[in-house]
Amino acid sequence: MNHHTIPAELELKPLEPGVCSNGEWAAQGEELLSTDPTTSKELARVVGATPEDTLRVIQGAQSAFESWKKLPAPRRGEYVRLIGEELRRYKKPLGKLVSLECGKILSEGEGEVQEMIDIADFAVGLSRTIGGATLPSERPEHRMFEQWHPLGPVGVITAFNFPVAVWSWNALVAAICGDTVIWKPSEKTPLSAVAVQKICNKVLEPEGFSGVFNLCAGGRETGEQIAVDERLPLISATGSCRMGREVGTAVAARMGRSLLELGGNNAVIVLDDADLDLALRAVLFGSLGTAGQRCTTTRRVLAQKNVFGELSRKLADAYGSAVVGDPLDPQTLVGPLIDEEAVGTFLRAVATARDSGAEILSGGKAGEGPGSFVEPTLIRAERGTEIVQEETFAPILYLIEVDGLDEAISIQNSVSQGLSSAIFTDSLRSAERFLCATGSDCGIANVNIGTSGAEIGGAFGGEKETGGGREAGSDSWKAYMRRQTCTINYGTELPLAQGVRFDID
Ligand code: NAD
């Protein structure tokens, strides 16, 4: 696989420091291996942070915050616009690096960079539109309003499966809000983070703002150190529910704020009156895209009796013919899993399902290497099958037959996660019942669209063990700012709220 080489335009070396504070690269910690999951070969090594390196990055981001927050928001937006322009230039090489390092197919790798560009454009717009409400005061000749101020340096901890886009959802919005950012990327994809940091430095260094975006690569301990640091008012963490529980607790213990984007166990409901072709295509992309390693991956199909058989057969056919292989090959639909550990988790989940009596309709095996490949796997399960309650980060799809909408919604909501959900139906009544307060309990609910592939314009995130955070579009920017309620008295009296009297003669 000769073409599995790091694009030269990114100017990456075989050994890169993974710590960048105020534009200065220096790291003394353990080396993190950047491995190509397709070939199982090393791409490069990235030197991680020591605890002292991490402290230095936090101090640097704190002092950079003092000047960045003074800049008018539209000026900050202008710098984010320049980063968006640079990302446009680097879309192909950076997209290829993402594919190489995390194994997603090239079109998804480039799509991830496109998502960064989209969020940059969105953040530029926000830099001229974020504002507060003016509210009626109960007191005469008083004006009450809200304003939003920059929050401080923000810690951003990210997962391997979106090695660059999730950083941009947080960092580019936080930056226009006036915050500086410390990025702790996944230890499994440190090289993509180094590449993005270099792009940011290229734009911001000549302008004297190189401390706005900082990198602090390392393992879990680096994330733990960032989470407990009181100088960081907000920690945005994306990853497993286990990680979110630990980070959330650590941040709450110091009265900080956390924004948690955690695991999902997303279902698609297919009713008898659904457009089956549409449902089929959406389930295939939702379950096989990114080799089943998206937080929004479709993990369960809850199909009504009359369509269950046909849908299962069509899915089994499509699963059997989906091309698994080199993510850089345009024919490939399913690349490798991130590493051998993920293959082990996949195999254990299949064995557990089989032991519990579930029927494997397609797939179930791992590839013979090199590379962390597994077969797309379709399993017929029952409502009570225990393994279905878990998020196995792999292309395993459970099919469950349901009587009707009520049972489907009840099964869908019975898992501990609450990220994304979808229904396929041509009935307006069923669609509305799915969307109403007693319907889906997820942060995302779609009709005749799958669970995966959200647009950046909406707020993204989920409920229950998914963590409750919201990122990207809509008013998610509020998480990166502090709200101040202000009241101005332009009269000559001092009336008290609630009619309280406190007269001093
Ligand atoms: P992970 O939890 O293993 O690691 C995520 C990040 O957290 C890494 O950078 C890791 O070093 C760090 N980390 C781990 N333990 C920590 C701790 N105790 N304190 C501080 N930092 C810690 O997750 P992963 O395997 O990289 O990613 C897969 C998971 O991420 C899946 O569960 C997926 O659903 C979830 N995810 C969620 C979203 C979302 O937006 N909801 C998006 C992408 C991925």
Assign a percent range to the helix content.
25-40%
Poorly predicted runs are none
Q: What is the CA-CA span between the terminal residues?
A: 89 Å
Biggest sheet statistics = 7 strands, mixed
Briefly note the CATH topology name of the largest domain.
Answer: Aldehyde Dehydrogenase, Chain A, domain 1
How large is the share of residues in beta strands? Answer: 15-25%
Structural category: alpha/beta
CATH top level label of the largest domain: Alpha Beta
**What CATH architecture label of the largest domain applies?**
3-Layer(aba) Sandwich
Q: Measured on Cα atoms, how large is the radius of gyration?
A: 24 Å
Q: With helices defined by DSSP (H or I, 4 residues minimum), what is the helix count?
A: 13
Give the strand order, joined by hyphens, for the main sheet: 3-2-10-9-8-11-12
Bound molecules: nicotinamide-adenine-dinucleotide
What is the typical, i.e. mean, pLDDT?
Answer: 97
Give the beta-strand count. Answer: 24
The CATH homologous superfamily of the largest domain is named: Aldehyde Dehydrogenase, Chain A, domain 1
